[in-house]
Every structure is written in structure tokens, then in C-alpha cells.
Amino acid sequence: MIYDVHQTTTYHYAAPVAHALHVLRLTPIGRDGQRVHAGALDIDPAPVERREGFDFFGNRVSWVSLETAHDTLTVHVNARIAVERRATPAVTPSWEDVRRAAFASIDLSGLGPAHFLFPSRQVSLDPEIRDYACKSFPAGRQILDGTLDLMHRIKREFVYEIGATTASTTPPMSFALRRGVCQDFSHIMISGMRGLGLPVAYVSGYLRTTRIGAIRLEGVDAMHAWVMVWCGDEAGWIGLDPTNDMLAGDDHVVLAIGRDYADVAPIDGVIFGAGRQRLEVSVRVTPL
Fold it and tell me: Are 73 and 117 within one domain?
């Protein structure tokens, strides 16, 4: 499937910002099962300095400096992306075998499983969440079967509610509320499975805006989040969307991968100004 992706992110500031430094993770790149035909990142006001590169996890990063006083910052992303995910393996190792393989792995590349086993900036290894996840992983169960069961349970037992949480809500807080959005459900799944010694990554990206003949998915028209679970050397990383209770397939466009939201935040940085700010984000992912 080939998509045209359009995203507009606008910050409205209560008072003019005199100077700003930003880190942008908004440029999609080619990955396994995904090819970028064209892409552009436009920033208004225009930065006086802009540098492009990649972070440790292989995500495209733009570092920009703004020195023109501004009361709005607008970032446009336009891209054409082809997505064709590989088939999900019918058989995967037991979760115990995957745990042993992950702790024995010597792969220290950006997607090596060792980086996704431990607590990260926004995901603690909470004992209550671990015990919740443990019910999906009885002895000897295949890791993908257990992960699918955990995803089904989260979909059944948690409520998708915009505004119930914020970007800084911790997994124990959203777990106690039993409600939240895609970021919260992904963080809960990550915390529970890492608590069992299983490597899980956080993915930011987009959902196809319309699906003909199907129920509209939660998280469209905005940035979305899901997880990737390492299922051993042969099966590799498999994406799962706990918000919509589905495997991440051709409806999902990957933007960035990290340990949690802090690693993939679309816009980071500092501004020199005063007063509050308001954020608006619109996304369209249109199949050609």
C-alpha cells in the first residue's frame, strides 16, 4: 500500500518567543517493510540553523535554531510512503526461550534486544503491572500467543479516553485509572513485559485515515503509538497495536522507534519566552 502522509503541527504561544532550539523527529525513513518515495519537512518561521542526522535507534532527527521572534511555530510534514509488512510467523519460541536469548544477546546495535529490557525514562518496571502481564504468560507459552493475549486483555479492560491522561502520565498512574490513550496502553504493555524479562520497544507513527468496509480505528487523524516485541533471532520484531487490538500491519506507518515516548517525542527542545502555549496537530494518511 502506498500512502500520502500530511501532518501539520502548530504551537501557539501566549507571548512572542525570542529564541528557540528544537529537536524534531518528524521525518519518516525507509525501514523493514517500509519505503519512503519522497519526503519534506517545512518549518515556519524558517530556522537560522538546521542540521540533519540520526539518533542511536536509527531515527531521522532535525536540530533547528530559531532566532526570529514568533508567536506561532508551524511544522509541515509531507511524504509518500509504501508499506508492505512481512507475514507474521505462525510459530514463535516460548517466552522463556526468548527471555534467555535476549539476556544472552551480544547485539548492541540500535535495535538490539538488550536496550529494551530495562527501565527507561518514562517506563518503570512496576510490580503490579508485571503481575497483570504474567497472567498471559504461563509456562511454555509461545511468546506471540502470550503477547496477543495481553493485548486482547488491555483492549477489553481499559477505556480509550482522550484527556484522561497527559504525555507525562506514568504507566502506574494510567494502569490504576484503567483508561488513557495509545501512549498509555503502549507504556503499560512495555512495563509489564519488560518486568518479565522480555524486550519491548515503543513505536510512534501514523494510522491509515480511512479503512473501507471496517470500523474506524482509534488514533487516526493524529500521531499514534504501538509496541514492537522481540520474538527471537528468527522471528525478529513484531508490531502490535494494543489500542486497536491488532497486529501492526499495512495500516501502520512507522515514524520513530525507541524505549518509550521520551525517545521518540516528535518535538523536543527549549524556548525563551513567557506564558502558556497551545498545541494543534492534524494528520492525514491517504491511500493512493
Answer: no
For residue 52, the domain's CATH number is 2.60.40.2250
125 domain residue, yes or no: yes
Mean pLDDT of 35-54: 96
Task: Examine the domain organization and report whether 62 and 153 are in the same domain.
Answer: no
5 forms beta bridges with 79, 285
Q: What is the domain count for the chain?
A: 2
| Spacing of C-alpha 31 from chain mean position | 15
Residues 185 and 54 grouped into a single domain: no
User: Which DSSP state fits 94?
Assistant: B
pLDDT digits (tens, 9 = 90+) for 57-72: 999 999 999 999 999 9
Q: What is the pLDDT of residue 217?
A: 73
The predicted pLDDT at position 212 comes to 52
Amino acid (1-letter code) at residue 258: G
Collapsed DSSP state (helix, strand, coil) of residue 156: helix
Q: What's the start-to-end Cα distance of the chain, in Å?
A: 8
Based on the number of CB atoms within 10 Å of its own CB, is 65 exposed (0-12), middle (13-18) or buried (19 or more)?
Answer: middle
3-state helix, strand, coil in the chain (%, to 5): 20, 40, 40
What's CA 149's distance to the chain center, in Å?
Answer: 20
Give the C-alpha distances (Å, rounded to integers) separating 50 from 23, 67, 73, 175, 255.
10, 12, 15, 39, 20
Q: Report d(CA 181, CA 163) in Å as an integer.
A: 8
Across the beta sheet with 49-54, the strand order is 49-54, 60-66, 19-24, 267-272
